[in-house]
Specification:
This protein is α/β, with parallel strands linked by helices. It folds into 2 domains: 125 residues, Aspartate Aminotransferase, domain 1, CATH 3.90.1150.10; 218 residues, Aspartate Aminotransferase, domain 2 (3-Layer(aba) Sandwich), CATH 3.40.640. Helix content is 36%, strand content 14%. It is built from 10 helices and 13 strands. Helix 1 runs antiparallel to helix 7 and helix 2 runs parallel beside helix 7. The radius of gyration is 20 Å and the shape is globular. The N and C termini lie far apart (46 Å).
Amino acid sequence: MSKFLSEKYASLTPYTPGEQPKERKYVKLNTNESPFPPSPLVIKRASEASKVLQLYSDPDSSVLTGTLARFYDVKRSEVLVTNGSDEALNFAFMAYCDQKTPAVFADITYGFYKVFALVNNVPYRTIPLNENFGINICDYFGAKGTIFIANPNAPTGIALSVEEIEQILIKNPDNVVVIDEAYVDFGARSVVPLIKKYDNLLVTQTFSKSRSMAGARLGYAIGCEKLISDLNSIKYSVNPYNVNRMTSEAGIGALEDKDYFENNCAQIIENREWTKAQLENLGFELTNSLTNFLFARSDAIDGGTLYEKLKQRGVLVRHFSQNRISDYVRITIGSVEEMNILVENIKEILEESL
């Protein structure tokens, strides 16, 4: 770092994204991207929007905001479109956390939560997952802070029920509860309908996973009008034109092509369950993932070694060195062909280790 960097960032440990290697072609199962291309409607709308890039984008993303509002049966004023759901989450840290109100989140969860707390210079408290990597909702009752819950959780893939989240909302009436639903479309239930009942609920979602638009960087937040107004105040103070024209139009196309979205989600779920069964037959232990990835471990080989051996064979998965989960690998669900390649390589690796 340079000598000019502010002391407040001197000890900052940035978020570590999944590998995006360029030295060779991999079967890439490490960053929870979709194996499917965007809908043809996405490409068509984005292409048309590219013809007027000399003009600023609509700072309100009005058409996309309205489309999302209709999709979720909420008011336009209850939706904020953002540059990826990470921006929505960061706005929430900025708006609802300070020296008197810490951030509260699980010890094993999306790594960006800790980074957002550090970069915004707000205190945070982590709550350990239970021995089965689940959240004990009682641990969040009266948390005295802004709660951030990834549901389903990453990297464990485990989801809370709508009823469990509602209990957390009821027990924290004086604090905002942020539910990060990046993976909700792969088998869990969204709590968006609860925004009509609870003024302390903020839900974030993304187009990156289930709508095949990770490279577009598009997300959104849904909450009561006052919460969205808070986040808009932050947005218009930081980056009014936060979503570009092409991305906004691409999002509209993705929402319009409902059949494409539903078919892709169904295929990923089917591939996930097939892969889970194959790994269980090989002696792996897996969590009950309701996401587009699996979280798996084997007594026959540790997570770091499996990651390295797969990488040598041209298959990328994600390994975390954090204590409690260092034996696990996180495996993105790809195409049928990609999952077959993964399973066959794991079989060979296990045979070699005997």
